[in-house]
Amino acid sequence: MIAADRPVQRPSDARLLVIDAGGRITQAPRSKVVDYLRPGDLVVANDAATLPASLHGRHVPSGAAIEARLAGRSSLSREDVRFAAVVFGAGDYRTRTEDREPPPALSRGDSLQLGPLMAILEARLGHPRLVTLRFAEAPHDVWAGLARHGRPIQYAHIPAPLALWDIWTAIAAAPVAFEPPSASFVLDWKSLGGMRNRGVVFATLTLAAGLSSTGDPVLDARLPLDEPYRIPAVTASALRRSKALGGRVIAIGTTVVRALEHAGARDGVVHAGDGVADQRIGAPTELRIVDAILSGTHEPDTSHHQVLRAFADGAVLNRASATLEAYGYRSHEFGDSMLVEKRAAVGTRSAA
Predict the structure, then answer these.
(1) What gap in Å lies between CA 10 and CA 320, rounded to an integer?
(2) Are 333 and 219 in contact (CB under 8 A)?
(3) Confidence (pLDDT) at 351
(4) Which of 56, 74, 172, 297 has CA atoms 20 to 30 A from the CA of 190?
(5) Cis peptide leading into residue 224 (ω within 30°)
(6) Which residues of 280-302 are buried (b: 16+ CB within 10 A; e: fewer)?
(7) pLDDT of residue 301
(8) What's the pLDDT score for residue 257?
(9) So what's the pLDDT on residue 105?
(10) Which domain holds residue 214?
(11) Residues 268 and 309 in one domain
(12) Which residues of 321-344 are buried (b: 16+ CB within 10 A; e: fewer)?
């Protein structure tokens, strides 16, 4: 696959690879995605807007230049200004994450001066780069400081600096994500209108999407970190209604799969309210809520690709990966898309 290197959310030539419940693979323009939906389907998207979560500054005890990438927190509350963070040494996104300098030795109690903000290192989290930070300022001042000093988290495959409007989706609401829920880049008012005309219901939830990469294989193996989410009452009601009427639940992105499956793990019913998704989704996962996923294209060794293994078996995904490579699909957040239905149960046939 080819890394998409321009921050264009809905390029006119974007493509869609479709895997149906029987494992059959087809290709289409992504503009035709609504044609693959059925009356009675429920489409659920993550409406989180993205924070400017990359903060440059210095490690006060050593004076060394650093970059701290906020990566997680325990709730969506505005009062919660404790964050998990990945800390790098000097440099920025122009250097591949894998090649970034390590941070200076970090110890509990260290101060990090991050623009107008002062963060205190409360704990190391089992890796030299991963720490818990608590900001010294009042919550209102922390959010204001992030807005003034922070930059979007970015990777080297995009050469030009990103602006916030490059990574906010058409449905962006509360700014709580650390990286964009980029599967939702496919959405615009035309596609939402097309869903409505087709008899497809649309709903949202909010999940604080975390980092897609840290540049360290050991730390990447721990991704995704725990992610807080909120499911509105109207969305929980739509889910119950869809299930009762036999409609499919289609998640826009891996973050939605994670939230819905976590919320429905106890009794197979998604209830409104807040939670923290702390599970991993992969081949062993029995999906109870979601019937299909619309996602970006992902390399087989990524955590996002592992989520697809809950929907389709390895042989099918291997054929899909070969197709993506052969036809030069674009990967990463501004790339092409995949629509993957949950594999049909043995002895059943997928709907036409």
Answers:
(1) 22
(2) no
(3) 41
(4) 297
(5) yes
(6) ebeeebebebbbbbbbbbbeeeb
(7) 78
(8) 98
(9) 96
(10) 2-50+161-341
(11) yes
(12) beebeeeebbbbbbbbbbbbbbbe
Nearest CA to 57 out of 132, 165, 146 is that of 146
Q: How far is CA 156 from the centre of its chain?
A: 18
Q: What is the mean pLDDT of the chain?
A: 95
| Interval 44-68 mean pLDDT | 98
DSSP strand pairing (42-46 vs 201-207): parallel
Residues in the chain: 352
Report the C-alpha gap between 56 and 67 in whole angstroms. 4
351: number of Cβ within 10 Å = 10
From the number of C-beta atoms within 10 Å of its C-beta (0-12, 13-18, 19+), residue 246 rates as exposed
> For residues 157 and 212, is the Cβ–Cβ distance under 8 A?
no
What value does the mean pLDDT take over residues 51-60?
Answer: 98
Claim to verify: residue 86 and residue 18 sit in the same structural domain: no
User: Do 209 and 139 belong to one domain?
Assistant: no
Residue 350 lies in a domain: no
State which of 120, 149, 178 marks the end of a domain. Answer: 149
Six-digit token string for 349: 């046939």
Structurally, the chain folds into a number of domains equal to 2
Q: Is the same domain home to 233 and 278?
A: yes
CA angle at 188 for the pair 182 and 194, rounded to the nearest 5°? 125
Tokens of 150: 């922070």
- Interval 245-302: pLDDT, tens: 999 999 999 999 999 999 999 999 999 999 999 999 999 999 999 999 999 998 887 8
Question: Is residue 74 domain-resident?
Answer: yes
**Predicted pLDDT of residue 346:** 59
Domain boundary among 129, 149, 169: 149
Neighbours of 221 (CB within 10 A): 10
Beta-carbon contacts of 122 under 8 Å, excluding residues fewer than 6 positions away, are 82, 108, 131, 132, 133, 134
Q: Both 67 and 208 in a single domain?
A: no
> What does 173-212 look like in DSSP terms, one character per residue?
-SEEESS--GGGGG--HHHHHHHHHHT-EEEEEEE----S
Average pLDDT (165-174) is 96
